[in-house]
Structure formats: structure tokens, C-alpha cells
């Protein structure tokens, strides 16, 4: 709790008896499962996360997010893996990832090492590095700073 950046979307309605799970990739929720194919076969979204690293999941047009993640990881010694999901990406979903994820082809989901979504951007932004830097800094509780361009 607290190590997330709200994206302004409403939480799913909770079932009064707790007998219905609404999968959603909203900050604060566990990354939902969906089957994917690519990079060596069939895997679950849960196979892409966990361990001692952050994961940045993008759509196939999310190169700016992936580049930003690589810069921040290198500059600050943070373990961050990137993968793209969607037509032309690293993985193709076997279900409706677009609806489940809440992001378009240029959007991004930042998944914390515990498997919970820490931040999400439904679309591309003008400065992916600054946005991702701000999210990681807030989650980690420390100021990071975007590395200067080489």
C-alpha cells in the first residue's frame, strides 16, 4: 500500500460476498493473468514478473517507455525488465489484453517486484523518461532523476 501512482481510474465494484474477481491492471492491483505466445513459447503474464526486479510492460508502440526504463535502470542500478505485448510486440495475447490492461499500443504498465501494478499510463506521454522516473521515485521513496542525454 502506498507504493503506487493512482491513474484516476475507478476501482472495480467489489462483490458484497467477495465471490467475484474482476481482473484489472489498475495501480494497486495484482497484474492479471493472461496467456501470451512469443519469445520461446506460451507463458503467462505472471511468468514475466516477480523476483527482485520491476517490469515495464508496453504495447508494441511503447519504444519510448522501454528506452526510458533502460536509461533509468542503468543510471540508478535498478533492475528493470521490459516486454511489449500486442501485435508486433514481444508477446501476442491469447485474450483481450487491450481491455484487461487499460493501455493502448503506446501505453505502459509498471509492475513492482511483488507483482502489483505500481503505475500505469493508458497512452504515450510527451516525456516517458520523466514520467517513469517520477513513478519509480515515488514507489521507491527516493529522488532518482532522469539521466542527461549522451
Please explain how this structure is put together.
- By secondary structure, this protein is α+β, with helices and mostly antiparallel strands.
- It contains 3 helices and 7 strands.
- The protein has helices spanning 63-76, 97-101, 128-140; strands spanning 35-38, 41-44, 54-58, 80-84, 92-93, 108-111, 117-121.
- A 4-stranded mixed sheet has the order 4-3-6-7, with helices on one face. It has a 3-stranded antiparallel sheet with strand order 2-1-5, with no helix packed on it.
- The longest helix has 14 residues, at 63-76.
- The N and C termini lie far apart (36 Å).
Properties at a glance:
150 residues; alpha+beta; four-stranded mixed β-sheet; three-stranded antiparallel β-sheet; 3 helices; 7 strands
Task: Reconstruct the topology from this structure.
Layout: E1 35-38, E2 41-44, E3 54-58, H1 63-76, E4 80-84, E5 92-93, H2 97-101, E6 108-111, E7 117-121, H3 128-140
Parallel strand pairs: 3-4
Antiparallel strand pairs: 1-2, 1-5, 3-6, 6-7
Helix pairs in contact: 1-3
Brief characterization of the structure:
The chain has 150 residues and is an alpha+beta fold. It has helices at 63-76, 97-101, 128-140; strands at residues 35-38, 41-44, 54-58, 80-84, 92-93, 108-111, 117-121.
Amino acid at each position: 500500500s502506498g507504493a503506487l501512482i493512482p491513474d484516476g481510474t475507478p476501482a472495480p465494484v467489489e462483490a458484497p460476498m467477495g465471490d467475484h474477481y474482476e481482473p484489472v491492471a489498475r495501480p494497486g492491483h495484482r497484474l492479471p493473468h493472461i496467456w501470451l505466445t512469443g519469445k520461446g513459447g506460451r507463458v503467462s503474464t505472471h511468468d514475466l514478473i516477480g523476483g527482485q526486479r520491476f517490469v515495464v510492460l508496453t504495447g508494441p508502440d511503447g519504444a519510448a517507455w522501454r528506452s526510458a526504463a533502460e536509461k533509468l535502470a542503468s543510471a540508478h542500478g535498478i533492475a528493470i525488465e521490459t516486454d511489449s505485448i500486442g501485435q508486433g510486440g514481444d508477446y501476442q495475447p491469447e485474450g483481450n489484453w487491450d481491455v484487461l490492461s487499460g493501455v493502448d499500443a503506446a501505453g505502459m504498465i509498471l509492475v513492482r517486484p511483488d507483482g502489483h501494478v505500481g503505475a500505469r499510463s493508458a497512452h504515450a506521454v510527451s516525456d516517458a523518461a520523466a514520467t517513469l522516473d517520477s513513478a519509480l521515485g515515488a514507489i521507491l521513496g527516493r529522488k532518482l532523476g532522469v539521466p542527461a542525454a549522451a
